[in-house]
Amino acid sequence: MTAGVLPVWWDDAADGPTNMAADELLAEEAERRGGLVIRLYAWSEPTVSLGAFQPIAEAEASAAIAGLPIVRRPSGGGALVHGTDLTYAAAVPRSHPWGGSPQALYDAMHGAMVAVLGMLGFDARLHLPSTNDPPGDALLCFARRSPGDVVVCRPGRSAMPTDPKVMGSAQRRLGTTVLQHGSLLLTTCPAVTAEARHDGLAELAGKAPEWTAKSLADRWTALVAEPLGIVREFQPQAFAAGRGQEIASRAGRFRDRRWTARR
Amino acid sequence: MAEMKFAKSHEWVRPEAGGLATVGISKYAVEALTDLVFMQLPPVGKKVKAGESLGEIESVKAVSDIYAPISGEIVEVNAALPGQLDTLGADPYGAGWIVRIKPDDPAEMAGLMDQAAYDATVKS
């Protein structure tokens, strides 16, 4: 373990199976280092990542995401359409202060993002359960709203229980580690049909964006590290560097139809 | 009733008549997961080693593996459970049982924690 450091990798774009395989290795890296690790990454083409147990038939029948490649995550939650989001994977040992209960890691990641968005002028908050919440089994993650999701008030309006969600996360709780996937919607995704699109930060800003994905990630990861009393350290190489063969080997499982259509 | 033993990964196992052992997950684990939505059970006849995944359970935002606390063959599953996940919270040590295993080595249970030791780990 490198004491006092939160290692953060910023990886190049890759396809869905490669990203899932890299995240599986990231969980092992968290165990090896004995602390929190974060990987930020992009996608080589707009891709749907399906929650661990979402029915494949529902995804394949959805006109909203027709024609997009689908990869199944090991983590739970709803389907995400990647391409205009900031995607992250975070992993901690289960013995870590944020590894004990599912909500601890959500709140740590999402709470830091609320603070960053506040600095940028957004009226952001963690969602509280409401009777107005949409069904919890909606196909798309951004059509769902769970306690602790990051929601943003529309410019010039008061906070409403129906304020749009801009960040959601989901976990895989492994034997000794926790892997959390999450997505911050930067701008609405044109790969989704118009009626199924959700506003991202750019649409909710009400003005020209004064941030980039990198500047957001810079502030966010620094704030994530603060309560742990450690310092965020961007790694000089991509996480995939030196792990390419292992990632390629593991990606095979995520390319396999038996995994993608397991339910 | 025979003494229940616990694994670090929050599964319990209880010896039954006929040499079988019943397996479930602890009340603490169920409460930590909250709002269960889906469960996948293993097929009857599957052989598992202690520490291997024998099923998966999904709550609103997290998927967790259920690990075999002992090695053996799955001889029965609680097939009604995935359709009645509330039972896991209401009666985790009774009607919320998950599988029955024919142990490879009944003595393997001696390496697991008793209730007091398990309670101490989840309170620490």
Set out the fold topology.
The complex is a heterodimer of chains A (263) and B (124).
Chain A: E1 5-10, H1 16-33, E2 37-41, E3 47-50, H2 56-61, E4 70-72, E5 80-82, E6 85-93, H3 102-119, E7 124-126, E8 150-152, E9 165-173, E10 177-185, H4 201-205, H5 213-225, E11 231-234, H6 244-255, H7 257-260
Helix pairs in contact in A: 1-6, 3-5
Chain B: E1 5-6, E2 11-15, E3 21-25, H1 27-33, E4 36-40, E5 47-48, E6 53-59, E7 62-67, E8 72-77, H2 86-90, E9 99-103, H3 115-123
Antiparallel strand pairs in B: 1-2, 2-3, 3-9, 4-6, 5-8, 6-7, 8-9
Question: What can you tell me about this protein's structure?
Answer:
With 263 residues, chain A is of the alpha/beta class. Chain A has helices spanning 16-33, 56-61, 102-119, 201-205, 213-225, 244-255, 257-260, and strands spanning 5-10, 37-41, 47-50, 70-72, 80-82, 85-93, 124-126, 150-152, 165-173, 177-185, 231-234. In chain A, the strands form two sheets. In chain A, strands 7-8-9-10-6-2-1-11 form an eight-stranded mixed beta sheet. With 124 residues, chain B is α+β, with helices and mostly antiparallel strands. Chain B is built from three helices and nine strands; from the N terminus they run βββαβββββαβα. The chains are: A alpha/beta (263), B alpha+beta (124). Chain A binds chain B through residues 51-53, 74-77, 100-102, 106, 136-137, 146, 169-175, 263, and chain B through 9, 32-34, 37-38, 40, 51, 56, 58-65, 67.
